[in-house]
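re: ur question from earlier - yeah i can do the single chain one, its not a big deal. heres the input i used so u can compare w yours
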Amino acid sequence: MPSPAAAPDVLPHVDAVQAALTATGLTVYLGGAPTASTWTPPDKFAVLYPDPGTAVRESLADERADFDTTMQITCVGADVERALWVAGRVRRALASPLTVQGRQCWPPEDLGGPPVQRDDDVTPPLYFVPVQYRICSTPA
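and the output i got, formated as tokens:
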């Protein structure tokens, strides 16, 4: 009897998304932008907000080795154009399957997001647009 596949882990998938984004030249923060009073935000950056994902049944044998998660990437810029530029870089970075060791990844599915919004709670105000991607993988 073959041994069951290891349960999938979200963290290697988060690392793969972050690596794909930084490879296109984006500054990427995980779980939020820095909050220190001495931090000066760059004129454009991305913030990755992953969910923990779901280990999905791969068969009636109830082996939960497939993985499904949604990751929100909030694209931030000093103006509307910069926020949309970041969104374009994100789309380019996630146009191909991710590389996760021991996993076969599907191409990320672009789920879109709302229109660009202005954040007046920070000084100076920033513009942001959250976009979501569905990330799925199976054991390699």
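Residues 78 and 124 are 8 Å apart (CA to CA). not sure if urs matches, ping me
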